[in-house]
Fold this sequence. Notes:
By secondary structure, this protein is mainly beta. Helix content is about 15%, strand content about 35%. The protein folds into 2 domains: about 30-140, Sandwich (Immunoglobulin-like), CATH 2.60.40; about 160-270, Immunoglobulin-like, CATH 2.60.40.10. It has 5 helices and 21 strands.
Amino acid sequence: MWRTTALTIAVMTWGIMTTSHQASAATKRRGAMIVSPKRNEAVERSHEVVGKLYVPGQPVILVKPEQGDGTWWIQPRPTLSDRGYFKTEVRFGSSTSRPGDRFSLVVIVLQSSSDIEYLQDRDYLAEIPETIWQSEAVPVVLGDNAKQDRGPVAISATILKPSHDEKVKRVTDLIGRVPEGLHPIVLVSVDDHSGLWWVQDPIVMGKGGYFKSIVRFGNDATPQGTKFRVLVVTPRSSQEASGLKTGMSLADLPNGIPRSKEIVVQLERPEANRVEGAE
Length: 279
């Protein structure tokens, strides 16, 4: 992935490619319209966005957190329907976002093969070229129900080792499997009322979707017998993955994120057993 500075230069180059769009500032913003959600509407973390095209082309939906570095995150490709309408499921924020966080929503319209080719392998834009067709920006706010999963959650990973109820050492290898093409992230939480999930070290992928991760259960002061919850998630976008970096703690999981079945393991400390035996 390009760094933001490099991407800014690339966007400037892209802007030169799109100078054929001879449109005034007022006209270019009429290239598309966001039908839903409305301005300042409360949205869920995963929310359907509906729009309408005013000019021919491929719509691309962008989301920018109000509190951030100004990055516009590219959303999944919309599905087109009759009369220029389109829709797609959009992600607002990450697992660290909270109700009340604000976002801007914009649609840009790509009309040339060079524009489409430029964006097809990218996850975000540092800025939107002024010459590209676009909609008016629509501000939205993350609602109070943002933590709730909507409907069944997809099972996208399997934890093969350790097994449920197994006793584990403080530092243990976790082995799992995912469909090829997915990028698993391992999370661990103490089985108590805190609810905090800790993101573990990056995984090492093998053949056939198998992966391995070094997992840490507690610290040197964690008592023997402490129980931990273990989960593997597979982010649906780079935006979602950006909120799941090694060492981070999460109060809640991203809404609806595909995951494994949760297992519970118990910490076993060999040194504690030796002390007990000596007594």
